[in-house]
From TrEMBL:
The keyword Nuclease applies. This is Uma2 family endonuclease. The keyword Zinc-finger does not apply. Signal peptide: none annotated. GO terms for molecular function: endonuclease activity. Keywords: Endonuclease, Hydrolase, Nuclease. It comes from the Bacteria. Residues 13-173 form the Putative restriction endonuclease domain. InterPro entries: Nuclease_put_TT1808, Restrct_endonuc-II-like, Uma2.
Length: 194
Protein backbone atom coordinates (compact mmCIF):
# COMPACT_ATOMS: atom_id res chain seq x y z
CA UNK A 1 0.00 0.00 0.00
CA UNK A 2 1.33 3.44 -0.86
CA UNK A 3 1.32 5.87 2.05
CA UNK A 4 3.36 8.97 1.29
CA UNK A 5 5.40 10.54 -1.48
CA UNK A 6 9.04 11.17 -0.66
CA UNK A 7 10.00 14.82 -1.12
CA UNK A 8 12.88 15.02 -3.59
CA UNK A 9 13.55 15.43 -7.29
CA UNK A 10 12.65 12.91 -9.95
CA UNK A 11 14.60 9.65 -9.77
CA UNK A 12 15.85 7.50 -12.61
CA UNK A 13 15.44 3.75 -12.11
CA UNK A 14 19.18 3.42 -11.45
CA UNK A 15 19.08 6.15 -8.77
CA UNK A 16 15.96 4.58 -7.29
CA UNK A 17 17.56 1.10 -6.96
CA UNK A 18 20.65 2.55 -5.22
CA UNK A 19 18.62 4.85 -2.97
CA UNK A 20 16.05 2.20 -1.98
CA UNK A 21 18.75 -0.27 -0.88
CA UNK A 22 19.61 2.19 1.90
CA UNK A 23 16.02 2.65 3.10
CA UNK A 24 14.33 0.88 5.99
CA UNK A 25 11.06 0.52 4.06
CA UNK A 26 10.11 -0.29 0.49
CA UNK A 27 9.12 2.37 -2.03
CA UNK A 28 7.28 2.20 -5.33
CA UNK A 29 8.57 4.38 -8.15
CA UNK A 30 5.83 6.02 -10.22
CA UNK A 31 6.72 8.66 -12.83
CA UNK A 32 10.07 9.33 -11.17
CA UNK A 33 8.59 9.81 -7.68
CA UNK A 34 9.19 7.39 -4.80
CA UNK A 35 6.23 6.48 -2.62
CA UNK A 36 6.72 4.81 0.77
CA UNK A 37 4.91 1.53 1.26
CA UNK A 38 3.06 1.37 4.55
CA UNK A 39 2.57 -1.77 6.54
CA UNK A 40 -0.69 -3.70 6.44
CA UNK A 41 -2.78 -5.31 9.15
CA UNK A 42 -1.99 -8.72 10.61
CA UNK A 43 -4.78 -10.25 8.51
CA UNK A 44 -3.39 -8.54 5.39
CA UNK A 45 -0.02 -10.18 5.98
CA UNK A 46 -1.45 -13.59 6.80
CA UNK A 47 -3.68 -13.64 3.72
CA UNK A 48 -0.72 -12.68 1.51
CA UNK A 49 1.39 -15.48 3.01
CA UNK A 50 -1.36 -18.06 2.50
CA UNK A 51 -1.77 -17.03 -1.14
CA UNK A 52 1.94 -17.03 -1.99
CA UNK A 53 2.37 -20.41 -0.29
CA UNK A 54 -0.59 -21.82 -2.20
CA UNK A 55 0.86 -20.59 -5.51
CA UNK A 56 4.39 -21.76 -4.71
CA UNK A 57 3.24 -25.26 -3.75
CA UNK A 58 1.06 -25.53 -6.86
CA UNK A 59 3.89 -24.41 -9.17
CA UNK A 60 6.66 -26.43 -7.50
CA UNK A 61 7.52 -28.57 -10.55
CA UNK A 62 6.88 -25.94 -13.21
CA UNK A 63 9.02 -23.26 -14.87
CA UNK A 64 6.92 -20.57 -13.13
CA UNK A 65 8.10 -18.59 -10.11
CA UNK A 66 6.03 -17.08 -7.31
CA UNK A 67 6.95 -13.70 -5.87
CA UNK A 68 5.92 -12.16 -2.57
CA UNK A 69 5.66 -8.49 -1.55
CA UNK A 70 9.46 -8.12 -1.73
CA UNK A 71 9.52 -8.73 -5.50
CA UNK A 72 9.37 -5.55 -7.57
CA UNK A 73 7.46 -5.42 -10.86
CA UNK A 74 8.54 -3.12 -13.68
CA UNK A 75 5.51 -1.84 -15.56
CA UNK A 76 6.05 -2.76 -19.23
CA UNK A 77 7.39 0.11 -21.34
CA UNK A 78 7.86 2.47 -18.37
CA UNK A 79 10.27 3.33 -15.58
CA UNK A 80 7.57 2.56 -12.98
CA UNK A 81 8.08 -0.11 -10.32
CA UNK A 82 5.55 -1.54 -7.88
CA UNK A 83 5.45 -4.12 -5.08
CA UNK A 84 2.30 -6.25 -5.30
CA UNK A 85 1.48 -8.65 -2.49
CA UNK A 86 2.02 -11.68 -4.74
CA UNK A 87 2.87 -12.39 -8.37
CA UNK A 88 3.67 -15.26 -10.69
CA UNK A 89 5.87 -15.17 -13.77
CA UNK A 90 6.34 -17.98 -16.27
CA UNK A 91 8.25 -15.79 -18.75
CA UNK A 92 11.88 -16.60 -19.57
CA UNK A 93 12.66 -12.87 -19.89
CA UNK A 94 12.16 -12.55 -16.14
CA UNK A 95 14.93 -15.07 -15.48
CA UNK A 96 17.63 -12.63 -16.60
CA UNK A 97 16.77 -9.72 -14.29
CA UNK A 98 17.88 -9.54 -10.67
CA UNK A 99 16.05 -6.52 -9.21
CA UNK A 100 12.57 -6.95 -10.68
CA UNK A 101 10.33 -8.90 -13.02
CA UNK A 102 8.41 -7.40 -15.93
CA UNK A 103 6.15 -10.11 -17.33
CA UNK A 104 3.97 -11.65 -14.60
CA UNK A 105 0.92 -13.57 -15.76
CA UNK A 106 -0.74 -13.14 -12.35
CA UNK A 107 -0.67 -10.28 -9.84
CA UNK A 108 -2.37 -10.22 -6.43
CA UNK A 109 -3.11 -7.21 -4.26
CA UNK A 110 -4.54 -7.73 -0.77
CA UNK A 111 -6.80 -4.75 -0.24
CA UNK A 112 -6.67 -2.30 2.63
CA UNK A 113 -9.35 0.37 3.10
CA UNK A 114 -6.75 3.10 2.54
CA UNK A 115 -5.49 1.71 -0.80
CA UNK A 116 -8.45 -0.12 -2.30
CA UNK A 117 -9.43 2.67 -4.69
CA UNK A 118 -5.86 2.93 -6.04
CA UNK A 119 -5.49 -0.86 -6.40
CA UNK A 120 -8.77 -1.05 -8.35
CA UNK A 121 -8.12 2.04 -10.46
CA UNK A 122 -4.71 3.59 -11.05
CA UNK A 123 -2.65 0.54 -10.24
CA UNK A 124 -4.75 -1.72 -12.46
CA UNK A 125 -4.36 0.79 -15.32
CA UNK A 126 -0.60 0.44 -14.93
CA UNK A 127 -0.65 -3.36 -14.71
CA UNK A 128 -2.94 -3.90 -17.69
CA UNK A 129 -0.24 -2.49 -20.02
CA UNK A 130 1.48 -5.85 -19.61
CA UNK A 131 0.59 -8.05 -22.63
CA UNK A 132 1.34 -11.23 -20.64
CA UNK A 133 -0.86 -10.43 -17.62
CA UNK A 134 -3.95 -12.67 -17.56
CA UNK A 135 -5.20 -12.44 -13.97
CA UNK A 136 -5.28 -9.56 -11.47
CA UNK A 137 -6.71 -10.78 -8.16
CA UNK A 138 -7.93 -8.29 -5.56
CA UNK A 139 -8.34 -9.89 -2.15
CA UNK A 140 -10.33 -8.34 0.68
CA UNK A 141 -8.67 -8.34 4.10
CA UNK A 142 -11.93 -7.54 5.93
CA UNK A 143 -14.40 -10.04 4.41
CA UNK A 144 -14.32 -13.33 2.51
CA UNK A 145 -14.37 -11.76 -0.93
CA UNK A 146 -12.12 -11.56 -3.97
CA UNK A 147 -12.48 -9.81 -7.33
CA UNK A 148 -10.69 -11.35 -10.28
CA UNK A 149 -9.92 -9.21 -13.31
CA UNK A 150 -9.34 -11.80 -16.04
CA UNK A 151 -8.25 -11.09 -19.60
CA UNK A 152 -10.23 -13.38 -21.89
CA UNK A 153 -9.13 -14.77 -25.26
CA UNK A 154 -10.52 -11.67 -27.02
CA UNK A 155 -8.26 -9.45 -24.89
CA UNK A 156 -11.17 -7.99 -22.93
CA UNK A 157 -10.98 -7.69 -19.15
CA UNK A 158 -13.88 -9.25 -17.29
CA UNK A 159 -14.51 -9.01 -13.54
CA UNK A 160 -15.59 -12.02 -11.53
CA UNK A 161 -16.64 -11.53 -7.91
CA UNK A 162 -16.04 -14.46 -5.55
CA UNK A 163 -17.56 -14.78 -2.07
CA UNK A 164 -17.80 -17.34 0.73
CA UNK A 165 -18.45 -20.81 -0.66
CA UNK A 166 -16.98 -20.04 -4.10
CA UNK A 167 -14.01 -21.68 -5.83
CA UNK A 168 -11.41 -19.29 -7.25
CA UNK A 169 -10.28 -20.17 -10.77
CA UNK A 170 -6.96 -18.75 -11.94
CA UNK A 171 -6.55 -19.79 -15.56
CA UNK A 172 -3.15 -18.08 -15.76
CA UNK A 173 -1.60 -20.80 -13.59
CA UNK A 174 -4.25 -23.52 -13.95
CA UNK A 175 -5.23 -23.40 -10.28
CA UNK A 176 -8.61 -23.68 -8.56
CA UNK A 177 -9.05 -23.42 -4.79
CA UNK A 178 -11.84 -22.76 -2.28
CA UNK A 179 -11.86 -19.08 -1.31
CA UNK A 180 -11.85 -20.04 2.38
CA UNK A 181 -8.35 -21.47 1.98
CA UNK A 182 -6.92 -17.93 1.98
CA UNK A 183 -8.89 -16.97 5.09
CA UNK A 184 -8.63 -20.08 7.27
CA UNK A 185 -8.45 -19.34 10.98
CA UNK A 186 -8.68 -15.55 10.62
CA UNK A 187 -11.00 -13.25 12.55
CA UNK A 188 -11.90 -10.69 9.91
CA UNK A 189 -13.60 -8.40 12.42
CA UNK A 190 -10.18 -7.44 13.81
CA UNK A 191 -8.30 -4.31 12.73
CA UNK A 192 -10.33 -2.96 9.83
CA UNK A 193 -8.74 0.48 10.10
CA UNK A 194 -5.79 0.19 7.65
Amino acid sequence: MITAKEDFSTLTPEEYFIWEEKQLEKHELINGQAYAMGGGSVNHGRIAIRITTLFSNHLENSPCETGNSDLRINIVGTNNYTYPDASVTCDDRDKITTQYITYPCLIVEVLSPSTEAYDRGGKFRLYRNNPVLQDYLLVSSTSIEMDLYHKNESGDWIIINYQAGDTIELKSINLSFPIEQAYRGLDLTLDTST
